[in-house]
Design a protein that fits this description.
The chain is an alpha/beta fold. The chain contains 3 helices and 7 strands; from the N terminus they run E-H-E-H-H-E-E-E-E-E. It folds into 2 domains: 77 residues, Transcription Regulator spoIIAA (2-Layer Sandwich); 59 residues, OB fold (Dihydrolipoamide Acetyltransferase, E2P) (Beta Barrel). The radius of gyration is 19 Å and the shape is elongated.
């Protein structure tokens, strides 16, 4: 299982205590990954019609930077838990950074890149995880999985 989050930072009325509570929750859960944005008013929405956008831009920017940095730390913590393991991945296509590597995902939605060899898009492949960043696993295929 993996957990992700979507956060709007600096929503109308958000206090510094609310922000600290968000950071505290993140520390407790340690989400695998997240999508974080600073609040901005959208015309026609209930919030734009009924609520004052009262969190200053510089405060939103600082809070967002803090949330992003903490999420990066937690994402790296989570990806490191895969190191040394052999897991099943579904090949989605070529890596964005190299046409010599495949990009694939496991059941927890973790992305891995590994050398192409003889595999093709749609193959389930067992891959040994050897390295990682906060967003991507890196490994070497060890063979087709039982799902092929």
């Amino acid at each position: 299982m993996s957990l992700s989050q979507d956060m709007i930072i600096g929503f109308c009325g958000e206090t510094e205590q609310d922000h600290q509570d968000t950071l505290s929750l993140m520390e407790y859960v340690k989400y695998d990954y997240g999508y974080m944005f600073a609040y901005s008013e959208r015309p026609g929405t209930l919030a734009a019609k009924k609520m004052e956008d009262d969190v200053p831009f510089d405060v939103k920017k600082r809070r967002l930077a803090e949330v992003i940095e903490l999420q990066r730390e937690h994402s790296l913590y989570r990806t490191k838990q895969h190191l040394g393991k052999t897991e099943e991945f579904l090949i989605e296509g070529e890596s964005k950074k190299s046409d010599l590597h495949w990009k694939a995902r496991n059941t927890q939605n973790m992305v891995i890149v590994f050398p192409k060899e003889h595999y093709k898009v749609g193959d389930f492949v067992d891959v040994k995880v050897e390295d990682c960043t906060s967003a991507t696993l890196k490994g070497t295929a060890v063979g087709y999985s039982d799902n092929n």
